[in-house]
User: Which sequence fits this backbone?
């Protein structure tokens, strides 16, 4: 029998570690630059409809350059991931597909944003979602004021772009972005510090 390992995650990160795909006949073929361009358009198309996107890939276990495998008969044996670094396992993968998941905001979210705005509170959204997904959800919640705001680079950014800006560049912005997608914990800290430098009082909450 053949054993596979599967990987899922943010499409842009999964595609970075994929080199192969299956054609319509189930035969393996290279994942080309043109294929990646088409997939990127599909990802953005799903994200623009507010879908959370996940890519799935696999690799045949016998292809791994294993140093050793866990001993199933020894409960003290190191685990698979202890014996085999993740970066060595998750490479040269076969792209399997793209999934769009509808995960709408909680029904309380919209009214909560509206109440904050009427109280003079500026609501910003920082999320791990794809930038286009984040923008679509922010539009529904009223965090963005118009449909055109979705594509405004001053109002919607992605975490890596925001993170690489130094404090001076951030402070020169007329206003801080209302939405940041694909953010990291560092993105949130950077946003809070930037708001503090502008003399703002800041409160942060999750969506739970």
Assistant:
């Amino acid at each position: 029998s053949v054993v596979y390992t599967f990987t899922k995650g943010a499409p842009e990160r999964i595609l970075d570690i994929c080199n192969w795909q299956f054609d319509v006949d189930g035969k393996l073929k290279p994942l080309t630059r043109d294929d990646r361009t088409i997939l990127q358009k599909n990802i953005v198309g799903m994200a623009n409809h507010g879908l959370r996107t996940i890519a799935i890939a696999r690799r045949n276990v016998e292809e791994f350059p294993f140093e050793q495998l866990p001993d199933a008969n020894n409960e003290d044996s190191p685990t698979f991931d202890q014996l085999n670094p993740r970066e060595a396992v998750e490479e040269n993968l076969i792209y399997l597909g793209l999934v769009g998941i509808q995960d709408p905001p909680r029904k309380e979210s919209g009214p909560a944003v509206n109440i904050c705005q009427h109280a003079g509170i500026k609501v910003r959204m920082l999320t791990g979602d794809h930038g286009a997904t984040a923008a679509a959800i922010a539009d529904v919640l009223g965090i963005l004021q118009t449909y055109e705001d979705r594509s405004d680079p001053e109002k919607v950014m992605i975490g890596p772009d925001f993170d690489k800006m130094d404090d001076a560049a951030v402070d020169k912005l007329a206003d801080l972005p209302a939405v940041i997608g694909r953010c990291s914990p560092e993105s949130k800290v950077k946003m809070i510090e930037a708001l503090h430098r502008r003399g703002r009082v800041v409160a942060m909450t999750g969506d739970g």
Q: What stands out?
A: The mean pLDDT is 90.
